[in-house]
Amino acid sequence: MTLLLWLSSWNNISVLGIFLTVFTILVDFMKRRKNWSRYPPGPVSLPFVGTMPFVNYNNPHLSFEKFRKKFGNIFSLQNCWTNVVVLNGYKTVKEALVNKSEDFADRPYLPIYEHLGYGHKSEGVIIARYGRAWKELRKFSLTTLRNFGMGKKSLEERVSEEAGFLCSAISSEGDRPFNPRILVNNAICNVICNITYGERFDYGDETFKKLLTLFENSLHEEVGFLPQLLNVVPILLRIPGLPQKIFRCQKEYINFVEKLVYMHKKTWNPAYTRDFTDAFLKEMAKGKEAEENGFNKSNLTLVTSDLLVAGSETTSTTLRWALLFMLLYPEIQSKVHKEIDKVIGRNRPPTMADQVNMPYTNAVIHEVQRCGDIVPMGVPHMTYRDTELQGFFIPKGTTIITNLTSVLKDETVWKKPKEFYPEHFLNENGQFVRPEAFLPFSAGRRACLGEQLAKMELFIFFTTLMQKFTFVIPEGQPRPREDSYFAFTNSPHPYQLRAVPR
């Protein structure tokens, strides 16, 4: 009798389990995308997880290249119940971001940033949803960065001054081999700190070291499968303590920026605008309308944090690639030296006015950006409304990934897409040309906020370093690796060099 009761209860549990399984699969099926006609093709979507198991999130652009070969330049993925479309190749990305810029101008909601203070009225500017507040904040940020002379010194003078500090720090290394990563990061980050907070830090300053360490570690926390999963299944973020544990450095970084802003506000004088933070505080003081446009306390922290991201990480990584390529291609370094000696000489500091007379150096810098492929996927977009692209229907609210690797290394555009070849940016007369497919800063309405600053920094820092030093591989060390590792940005593997004074 006991056995019969046990079998009966076991059967009931089995039936209940089967029912729940079938019910869950049905719910999963109903939550997935409708069978829109002309929706882009893609790999088979599995229950619950969609196509996520088929993507290598440690190197997603490599997975995208495989899908592109099978499905074409526009293909779809399914992150659990989130619809994703990946755009590949110059023509496709240009049509979306430039020709149909507003259709693709939105950003997807990213729940993993909630614990950092991101919300309905505080979204920063980089990942803010497309709308009035974003337009006002971006316009304000671009205008302030463009016009802000910061007292007696222009922005170009500040960059040139910091390039001098970097050269002094490198000179102090003497004949010893060293990894340039920390020094380069210090210099580039100091420029944006100067703009944002009106002051620069000594490279040995402990506060500065902490800021850079937290910032760098926070980027690593966004890479991999788990952050992607948490964004599409945000209920998991409700597990007590989980966000704080997984994204510990991100939270510490935001807290650190909040402290910098707080200390800055204590010395704020409304009659004198020292820097970007002061300009933001001045907008906040205008009252309710300004607050509705995003000028509030929370956004002050997030926008200045965005500026540090937009104005430091990609530029410092690009400069480290530039030094690496000079090590690997000494004949190209020699040509840069000759052009600098001819146009500038070895004593006068370079200026942006020199750029037009230095086509080869300019071509080398652009080729570093192209070949280094610093931000291979850009920042995710989202369709602002239903749209069509090359015959495919893409509904409103679809997450869009622009595969910038496929643009910067498009075989239909570049003669030697997988090689470091500065002649990509020179015509038959040796004059500088910029192909339309050069999109390292993305394009359209959501192009990189720090693009103009980055261009200035790259030219002045690179030219100043090449003016003062010859960079060589230390004796007895192997040739550095030319491939990259991915942590939101494509960075060179650690390497050492010697800086020989010229």
UniProtKB/TrEMBL annotation:
One of its GO terms (cellular component) is membrane. The gene is CYP2D6. It comes from the Eukaryota. GO terms for molecular function: anandamide 11,12 epoxidase activity; anandamide 14,15 epoxidase activity; anandamide 8,9 epoxidase activity; heme binding; iron ion binding; oxidoreductase activity, acting on paired donors, with incorporation or reduction of molecular oxygen, reduced flavin or flavoprotein as one donor, and incorporation of one atom of oxygen. Belongs to the cytochrome P450 family. This is Cytochrome P450 family 2 subfamily D member 6/pseudo. It is found in: Membrane. One of its GO terms (biological process) is oxidative demethylation. The lineage of its organism: Eukaryota, Metazoa, Chordata, Craniata, Vertebrata. Its cofactor is heme. The chain crosses the membrane at residues 12-30. InterPro entries: Cyt_P450 (IPR001128), Cyt_P450_CS (IPR017972), Cyt_P450_E_grp-I (IPR002401), Cyt_P450_E_grp-I_CYP2D-like (IPR008069), Cyt_P450_sf (IPR036396), Cytochrome_P450_fam2 (IPR050182). The keyword Chaperone does not apply. Keywords: Heme, Iron, Membrane, Metal-binding, Monooxygenase, Oxidoreductase, Transmembrane, Transmembrane helix. Heme binds at C448. It comes from Coturnix japonica (Japanese quail). PANTHER family: CYTOCHROME P450 2D6-RELATED (PTHR24300:SF1), CYTOCHROME P450 508A4-RELATED (PTHR24300).
